[in-house]
Amino acid sequence: MNTCFPSIRKYTISGSRIRTIGLTLILCYYSLVAKNQTSYVCSNCGASFASWYGKCPDCGQWEALKRFTTQDDPKESRSNAAPAHFAPLAAAQSTHTERISSGVTEVDRVLGGGFSRSEVIMLSGEPGVGKSTLLLSIVGALAGHSKQTVAYCSAEEEESQIALRAKRMGIDTSNILFSDESNIHSVLLALSSQKIKPALVVFDSLQTLYSKTSESLPGSVAQAKEILMSIVDFSKKHGVVSIVIGHITKDGDIAGPKFLEHMVDCVLFLEGEKGGGLRILRSLKNRYGSIEEVGFLEMVSTGMKEVGNPSKFFLDMNMSVVGKTAVGIREGERIVFASVEALVVASSMAFPKRVAKGIDTKRLELLLAILKKYLKLPVDKYDVYVSVSGGLQLFDPIADLGIMGAVYSTMTNTVYSSHAFFVGEVGLLGQVRASRHIARITKEARRIGFTEFYTAQNTPTVLSLQKHGSK
């Protein structure tokens, strides 16, 4: 055997050598993987996972995990990092005390007095709600009245389209710079190199821009993160206010994971009913102001018009009809009045419908349960529809009594006075609670013509609804 194969011994590899080679191959593999790591990020809550799941383990959202690839920069390592600089906090000077007016009073109200220096704002809303129109109104106000240079970067529309819209809105475009470049690094390089520094830069929109430093497809999570990081760095370095338009998902949330919202200073949401002219601007996040303020705007042919008295859109003074009540809520520092309408019809289904427009459906179900318990109304046999006029959202529980009054009115065919006004939160035991803002709300309601008030003082429980109104 040995004479037939004299050299077989020298090709034999020992077990230890095999283990060494195997370990080397494993280390090489992991070093390559480390340079191109793949994770899966939930677009709803921002949680990150090493593998894909159909349902996010953290928030429970289905089909929300998106692939996200990060690449290590071989030029940088932890060992070569420069030490951080610490300075006494007492010696620091705030750079955000000076405000820059947007030129639109309602926008300034939501922002807390105007733009802050180096602020990055994300504006979102339904398609066609008027995001670009609102920003063009702000750009026109800054460039026209304040004579400040403003840059508008749009990868969605051409220069001629923006110019035509600006002309229709009566905007002076002499101080407006425009670019339709979609490469974010080319845009920021041009803005950084120009001698005239813009006071405001608009990016329309985040999902249409792309970055060459990321290998992911445009519109992906990795691209959005890279682009937004570049915009934030540019704004902080040059002291420029940046507004980025962000698309939304079919559920009405801002597209992309939540950490995109964490990266910016302010998140604004523009909402409004299709076919209606009223637009409501809300602040979901604001590092330099309150998130309680709300701005009311009207979409007209010349752009966005400020609404000084929003109650005229929500309140119908013809209140003496079945199923209708008047309520008032506090929106920021303003009192807003609205009409609540209710309709009940006999249900042919085992589980009656509960349709709510302008209020939370769960809140409506809770109020219906209170009506059934204490007023013995057979709401479980009826489909119930409740709507708030004008598209206003009643988040304040102080409108509970008005909602219950509208449902009670339509179920019992009761008509309240045209001067009746409802204000009060209803508890699970049927009691009506007062609010610390009730004095101001009733004062404003009395000023516009209401004289008959249903409050915790004269309506201590929901049983008191039976004593009011006429059939």
Automatic annotation (TrEMBL):
The molecular function GO annotations come to: ATP binding; ATP-dependent DNA damage sensor activity; damaged DNA binding; hydrolase activity; zinc ion binding
One BP annotation, GO: recombinational repair
Q: Which residues form the RecA family profile domain?
A: 96-248
Gene3D superfamilies tied to this protein: 3.30.230.10, P-loop containing nucleotide triphosphate hydrolases
PROSITE patterns in the record, alphabetically?
RECA_2
InterPro entries found in the cross-reference section: AAA+_ATPase, DNA_repair_RadA, P-loop_NTPase, RecA_ATP-bd, Ribosomal_Su5_D2-typ_SF, Ribsml_uS5_D2-typ_fold_subgr, Rubredoxin_2
Arranged from A to Z, the UniProt key words for this protein are: ATP-binding, DNA damage, DNA repair, DNA-binding, Hydrolase, Metal-binding, Nucleotide-binding, Stress response, Zinc, Zinc-finger
An annotated GO cellular component? cytosol
Record's family? Belongs to the RecA family. RadA subfamily.
Quote the function comment for this protein: DNA-dependent ATPase involved in processing of recombination intermediates, plays a role in repairing DNA breaks. Stimulates the branch migration of RecA-mediated strand transfer reactions, allowing the 3' invading strand to extend heteroduplex DNA faster. Binds ssDNA in the presence of ADP but not other nucleotides, has ATPase activity that is stimulated by ssDNA and various branched DNA structures, but inhibited by SSB. Does not have RecA's homology-searching function.
Record protein name field: DNA repair protein RadA
Q: Which organism is it from?
A: Candidatus Roizmanbacteria bacterium CG10_big_fil_rev_8_21_14_0_10_39_6
The lineage, from the top, is:
Bacteria, Candidatus Roizmaniibacteriota
